[in-house]
Write a sequence for this structure.
């Protein structure tokens, strides 16, 4: 492989056309310049210069090495510059989260991308376990989870609170236990967990979501409210998921007397520095998610 230092010396010599001035430009001695050229010739196995006293001209091989070598030196120089550059609004940012927070955050980050065309948002929707695995395997830069990671390589910090809401058909007023039992539960992948948190804090009769008849199930977060809007049952969902659904205006959202929120965690690889563009997206995500945390005050039905 060609020594890039020798190649740089040779290309500079060709452009300057003078050994002494080349040495001054490269902060070398004149003998050092001559030595680099001689070593490059030895490495390539053919002469690159035709020397006439203090003057020189290029051999055919020398001309070819110069033409291709200057492109190589330029590419190496640009590579060095790019490694030191860390733009805030350029490059791909890969992130993942469960569906609820993703429905709010993804749209918000796309608006950020509209304003900064050099930025590209790569967003994956996945459950907590998959999110932390993707972080650990460097398949995403950051992730948001509703529980802290258990993996050694994934660091987590709380960034927001996401309120849980009881959602019933539009015609139902303040729900009592008997009404919920009569309706039945519209389940989803996190249904039992969410019901346990919210209903367990507000209904002394509650033990487990299996107490209710299972009136339906959907693993597509934007469709979970469809059966609720048709009067087929009730469910418990994070606020972001409710607000993103087209059915939000056709159901009733209940804030129970004891409010319950899930903590949202930011996860990232503990041994990988975060580039400026990723830190920019984190700041924007914090701002977006913080809006809901500060706006979720109050109580009662709405």
């Amino acid at each position: 492989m060609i020594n890039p230092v020798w190649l740089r010396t040779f290309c500079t010599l060709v452009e300057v056309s003078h050994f002494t001035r080349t040495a001054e430009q490269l902060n070398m001695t004149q003998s050092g310049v001559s030595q680099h050229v001689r070593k490059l010739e030895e490495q390539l196995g053919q002469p690159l210069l035709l020397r006439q006293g203090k003057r020189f001209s290029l051999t055919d091989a020398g001309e070819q090495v110069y033409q291709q070598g200057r492109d190589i030196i330029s590419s190496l120089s640009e590579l060095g510059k790019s490694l030191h550059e860390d733009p805030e609004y350029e490059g791909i940012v890969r992130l993942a989260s469960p569906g609820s927070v993703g429905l709010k955050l993804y749209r918000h980050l796309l608006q950020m991308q509209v304003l900064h065309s050099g930025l590209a948002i790569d967003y994956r929707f996945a459950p907590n376990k998959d999110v932390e695995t993707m972080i650990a395997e460097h398949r995403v830069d950051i992730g948001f989870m509703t529980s802290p990671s258990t993996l050694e390589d994934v660091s987590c910090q709380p960034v927001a609170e996401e309120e849980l809401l009881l959602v019933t058909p539009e015609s139902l007023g303040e729900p009592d236990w008997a009404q919920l039992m009569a309706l039945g539960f519209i389940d989803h992948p996190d249904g039992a967990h969410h019901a346990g948190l919210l209903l367990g804090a507000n209904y002394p009769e509650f033990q487990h979501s299996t107490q209710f008849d299972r009136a339906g199930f959907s693993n597509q977060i934007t469709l979970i409210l469809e059966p609720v809007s048709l009067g087929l049952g009730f469910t418990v969902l994070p606020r972001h998921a409710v607000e993103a659904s087209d059915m939000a205006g056709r159901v009733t959202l209940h804030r129970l007397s004891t409010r319950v929120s899930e903590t949202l965690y930011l996860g990232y690889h503990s041994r990988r520095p975060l580039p400026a563009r990723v830190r920019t997206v984190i700041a924007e995500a914090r701002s977006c998610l913080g809006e809901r945390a500060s706006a979720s005050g109050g109580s009662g039905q709405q």
Notes: Residues 255 and 298 are 9 Å apart (CA to CA).
